[in-house]
Amino acid sequence: MSLSTNSYFNDQVKSIAFESANGPCTSGVMLPGEYVFDTSKHELMKVVEGELVVKLPGSDKWQSFKTGTEFNVAANQSFDVKVSVTTAYLCFYS
């Protein structure tokens, strides 16, 4: 097994990719800021610590996801994220 690291948005978001028992996933941290992410696969995003305020595809409303909560985004979509406190996440891809 190998690990690969990724950095996005001028090092404001960093992740480590690995293969879990349930398939590919990343564990990462987002610093405060506003971001737009694109998906190539279905994503299950779990907030490990902190809070993500997200506008999901097809929605006009922002939703708060705090520590211990999760949300799904379909493949080939984009979603907006606002981060006010440094936030850790775990993302599963399928």
Task: Describe the fold and architecture.
The protein is an all-beta fold and 94 residues long. The protein is 0% helix and 64% strand. The chain is built from no helices and ten strands. The protein has strands spanning 4-8, 13-20, 23-30, 33-38, 43-49, 51-55, 63-66, 70-73, 78-83, 87-93. The strands form two sheets. Strands 1-2-3-10-5-8 form a six-stranded antiparallel β-sheet, with no helix packed on it. The protein has a four-stranded antiparallel β-sheet with strand order 4-9-6-7, with no helix packed on it. A hairpin with a 7-residue loop joins strand 6 (51-55) and strand 7. The protein is globular and about 40 Å long. The protein starts with a strand and ends with a strand.
Strand residue percentage: over 45%
Mean pLDDT: 96
Count of DSSP-assigned helices? 0
SS content category: mainly beta
> How far do the termini sit from each other?
19 Å
Q: Within the largest sheet, what's the order of strands? A: 1-2-3-10-5-8
Query: Element order, helices and strands?
Result: EEEEEEEEEE
Q: Shape, please?
A: globular
Biggest sheet statistics: 6 strands, antiparallel
Low-confidence stretches: none
**What is the share of helical residues?**
under 10%
